[in-house]
Amino acid sequence: MSDYLLEMHDITKDFNGVKAIDGIHLQVRRGECVGLCGENGAGKSTLMKVLSAVYPYGTWSGEILWEGKELKARNIRETEEAGIVIIHQELMMVPHLTVAENIFLGSEPRNMAGFIDYDLMNAQAEKLMARLKMSDINVALPVYNYSGGKQQLVEIAKALNKNAKLLILDEPTSALTTSETKTLLNLIKEFKANGMACVYISHKLEEVAEIADTVTVIRDGTHIGTQPMAELDTNKIITMMVGREMKNLFPRETHAIGDVVFEAKNISCWDVTNRERKVVDNVSFELRKGEILGVAGLVGAGRTELACKLFGCWNGDHEGKIFLEGQEISVRAPRDAVRLGICMVPEDRKRHGIVPLMGVGYNITMSVLKRYTTGGFIQSEVELAEIQNQIIRMKVKTAEPLLPIASLSGGNQQKAVVAKMLLPEPKVLILDEPTRGIDVGAKYEIYKLIFELAKQGVAVLMISSEMPEVLGISDRVLVMGEGKLRGNYVNEGLTQEKVLAAAIGQPATEAA
Amino acid sequence: MTLTKKDVRKFLSEYKIVALLIVIAIIWAFFGYLTYDTELGGSQFLTPRNFSNLLRQMAITGMLASAMVFVIVAGEIDLSVGSLLGLLGGIAAVLDVTYSWPLWATIVLVIAMGLFFGLMVGWLTAYLGIPSFIVTLGGQLAFRGMVLGLTGGITIAPVSSDLKFIGQGYLPELIGDVGGVLLFLVLVFLALRTRMNRQKHNLAVSTMPTEVGRLLFAGIIILGFVMTLNDYQGVPVPVLVLLVILAVFTIIGNKTTFGRHIYAVGSNMEATRLSGVNVAYVKMMVFALMGLMCAFAGLTTTARLAAGTPSAGFGNELDAIASCFIGGTSMRGGVGSVSGALVGAVIMASLDNGMSMMGIDTFWQQIVKGIILVAAVYMDILSSGNQRA
To answer: In CA terms, which of A230, B74, B248, B344 is 20 to 30 Å from A347?
Structure first.
């Protein structure tokens, strides 16, 4: 009997002759956490879909051994019965069902008469939540009452309820706050001690370094290497992922900073549903020509709400004045903002960034379509020529310029969304989490672009939850916490500690 | 290279319209065979006369379906068009019969009323945020009530011969021929211009033989169409109107910012709004177009029946919606074409016409049409590989 819980040997999966993954190996011992790293499109998801039988046995080649025996699962139910449970990047919760109902969805305990036994279900749900040290959650309340982090834990409770022996976590922390992430990582460590195995997929290499025992790196569908974490560090992992040394993650370039071009005065926003709650509280700041202004803060600090207000898409109550080049402007809808020269790349690419069924090219030209018309008719040739320019300029990888954008990888979608918001030639560009969920290579391209824009004199407001990114890119950093502006620092000798302290609201530590 | 299932699927999803035309060919062959008459020495279904009838029958559904496509593509629905058609047709009848208005004045007022009601429905949906399903369900009841009030529940007849012409008239043979030739020349001109523009911008162009072949094919279709109709009485006026609508709406859909925005709004409204598009205005104008088409369809209906009846247009919204879905429009919005919807309308009309000719009871006709609708959408789901696991 082998000491591995799971062994995947020589896994190859092709789509119409194109190999998505080619000869990948993955082994997981009981009580071990394996970090799976690779750029977007490297084949991580494909590998996990093979493992969880989204692609059933027979549609790929290779061998999967589960507890020493060959696994020939035909659907997800069979892999779940074996004890392999996958937790997806996006939460799969039904918001209006209660916590307990979500946990037992599809496996509801029933009483003699065939009705759901709510007492038993709630009691068991409470036990599960207690195991996750989340006893303060009311399992009889609808799930939408809880934050993304808590919902993530409910998702894990659901997995525990299925008697998972192997937990696969796909980018579990992309929507979590720092403290929620910490809770989750501690929990995984505890599971490990109890003998559960897990596969941890994440772009956040610090997290991988913290909890993984072994790291497997794949690139372009091929196996690059598997090494104990003890022999690695994050830099080595990056080198393995991109296949070249990334000396400088942030391609800083000097750029001249000019006069004040944009000014926000006393901006306040109120919550859409709870109209008493202020989400942005009296924030004022200035933005100069060619300046990159980072906005740091924890999730829920009010940064996205502030950006929405400036771009004219905040649906709740709001007040405050906005000045562009010294003139007060009124921005009542995004189209006002775009017309005046303020553009925004939204945080949630899927919901707010892309028009999925439309071609990449048509997504790019959406904001400035009028430019390509004469007498009211679109001149397709002029438009197509511009689309090709943009695709080349932004290095968007697409087989055809009019392929539906939904079929592209996240990084390429993001490049297209950025291209769309650059075509109106903005004076002020707001970037809300511009590198969320995209790979190292695409990130690098976006950073380079930001510096290029700054050189051209565009004022950039960049919201980011990744502290190294804020410090690596910005000329100046605003720190927000609980809707208030808690810091406005020139980025010279600024440290993560200082920014974090300000975000939490402890400016006193500044001296320390 | 052998043709695999996947290749067929890919072909059908890319050239949906080809698949639909094949379906039409099958239906026509089927009815042509079943209505074969030894005395006539030919089929009753496949005659120029019946072809002309069939097109006239589908014209009204086709007008509604042309605009309904945009409504559905924008992610909305309009259940009120049958009733609105009845109301506008009733107004036309009253103006013509009771007040003896000249035709042009009747047409202008009816079109204005159509636009007004369409804008109203659009405003309630897009600006006040009431779901279109509810607004137009209410509209269905309210407009039908107005027709009953307006006509007093009785038929208003006889309408003037001027009005009758737009529903029952035919174009003289010569005009049909000249029109066909002009259409062909326009197509040739457009193809050449596109070619030159693409070359100017260094975009790929298809080879000259392909281009010529494509144009020849279009020419043969136009020639066959005009000659067949001229063989009976000429191109029917409503069919001509429908063809113009097809051309105009296809251009709106493919060549204008408004058309592009309709598709964008239906695919992801939030992202479209954040791109700086006035999404509420786009939605409202889509309903305005729908109202305009109700006016056209209402005028045609009254002219065809030579009377305004309280039940005119009853159930027409369902035929129009079914035509869109048979023609490949997506329930979820963002996908669909006017030409597809019109082919859908031809399929529906062919079924009606063929089954009537064979003397099949109306109740059977409805059952068959219902099954065809569900089956057609299922085929669409299969071919796009969108089914749920």
So the answer is: B74
